[in-house]
Amino acid sequence: MSLISTLTEMLGGMLAEYAIQKKWSKIKIFFVTSTFFFAASLANLLVFEHRRGIFWAISGAAILGVGLGIFFVLAIYVHEKTKK
Prior knowledge:
The protein is mostly helical. The chain has helices at 2-22, 26-47, 54-83.
């Protein structure tokens, strides 16, 4: 389980750097990172199910995906403001 989490973290960082290099819009960054983390965390929760059911896995993955999408948009925004 920690391997999947570590791999997701590494790929998320690479995705953020790629988005900064290609100067993606904030909306595109939000949707791409949210979708990426939703899919990764849903796979993680479904593979290592904790007897709470599929509803909790999907809702937990959605909350995590949206939360991390917002986090990456804010992190890139702060990076752009402090860079100038």
